[in-house]
Amino acid sequence: MTVTTVKPRYRVEIVIDNDPPDPRERDNLGAMTCWHKRYNLGDKHDFDDPTDFMRELADESAATSALVEFILSGEANGLRFEEHSDKRFD
């Protein structure tokens, strides 16, 4: 189906693209990181769950001292420090 409009000095033709490119495969401003039990949503990633994603994001995005100060301030909604006996975190 084609729609054509003619105005003085302009002709606009709108054509249905039966094979459009995937907009997520082009240059994007960011990445969509999603989890769903039955659907593949967002961009491909290797994170097992949102907690792994948040850990890596925090490691890459914030200086450790600034992150620690923010959590200790009590303004990090839902985040807090806990004692941990797991040797992986020593």
Note the topology:
Blueprint (H helix, E strand, L loop, with lengths): L1 E6 L2 E6 L34 H12 L2 H9 L18
Antiparallel strand pairs: 1-2
In angstroms, what is the radius of gyration? 24 Å
Helices, by number, come to 2
Number of strands: 2
* % residues in beta strands: 5-15%
Helix content: 10-25%
List the strand order in the largest sheet: 1-2
The ordered string of helix (H) and strand (E) elements is EEHH
Outline the low-pLDDT stretches.
none
Give a quick summary of the entry.
With 90 residues, the protein is α+β, with helices and mostly antiparallel strands. It contains two helices and two strands, in the order ββαα. The protein has a domain at 45-76.
Please explain how this structure is put together.
This protein is α+β, with helices and mostly antiparallel strands. It has a domain at 45-76. It is 23% helix and 13% strand. The protein contains 2 helices and 2 strands; from the N terminus they run E-E-H-H. A two-stranded antiparallel sheet has the order 1-2. Strand 1 (2-7) and strand 2 (10-15) form a beta hairpin. The radius of gyration is 24 Å and the shape is elongated.
